[in-house]
Amino acid sequence: MIKKLLRAGAWLAATLVLLAAGAYLYYRSLDLDKLPKANPQFAVADLAYLKNTVAQKRGRILAVVSSTERGGPAMKRAGYELTELARAYYVFQANGYEVDIASPKGGKPPERIDLDDMGEADYAFLNDAAAQDKVVNSIALADVDARQYAAVYFVGGKGAMYDLPDNPDVSRIVNDIAGRGVVGAVCHGPAALLGVKLASGKALVDGRRMTAFTNEEELFLMKDARTRFRFLLEERAVAEGAHFVSGPKYIDNTVVDGRLVTGQNAWSTWSVAEAMIAALGHRPVARERTAEEVSLRLLATYYRDGLGAARAEQAVLPRFDKMLVLMHSVVAAMQWRAIDAVNLQRLANG
Questions:
Q1: N vs C: which end of the chain shows fewer Cβ within 10 Å?
Q2: Sign of CA dihedral 66, 253, 43, 131
Q3: Beta-strand runs (E) in 88-246
Q4: How many angstroms separate the CA atoms of 80 and 163, rounded?
């Protein structure tokens, strides 16, 4: 019996070694270390689309971020997502709008930076002295004069789930702007819209088409989301009467209902910002799509029309973000969607 167990153990060990070796060789074949990365020294002057900035000064947009550094029973890190602020900031600026930054407490809010997600605009924002001065000295929401702004944009990040919902200053600002301007939010940012009631007593989102970080996305990343947050975005939006529009996980999905613009996740930031400009009555300035955006387009085509259509589109599109496509392959594998996992690896490898 002992010899049989030892023999079985040896075979198992050998199999694990072979699997590990195979996984390592596969990883090396992806050449991930050779993938181009954004330059941390990137400056505002290097952002090509800002050269198309409109000459006309069209007004001001208020970007609102969270002040909550940690939250939930375990006091885990929260804050706002830098990429969701930086990318929208320059879209607004290129289209003739000065951007002010506000937070519930004012002063320097806690930011979250994921180096794997950083692009040119994000590094430019970190290297932009004027933008950083606005971040460090963010306006306290209680001090915001909403009459100065044509639009308000709520930035996501887990902190938004703690100090933006049911916030009386948020409600005051949204009510002032909603009747004459544009209200936008992305990822967890739409939490700010929940609890906002119009003068009629009706919930702001009641009967409106909107989106936000979905239950599926939230619970895939955080199994303890229901205890970490007071509510899940999708569920509370529906409870307040919203027509919630969800797309595939971690794919750009921006929903426009009149002058209410919402985006499902961080990958919707560019499209939310440009949809807000369109809702303000302007055609957004020309901008070359980032490799990330090209990948999102390929992924959307794959999920809608299959691998063949995505490969055909890939042949005529510019550079794409291989890492992002591979991330979707990993997500598929984790959900036991073997065919999608394999197909997305093929798409990533061109």
A1: N
A2: negative
A3: 97-103, 111-112, 139-140, 151-154, 182-186, 209-210, 243-244
A4: 11
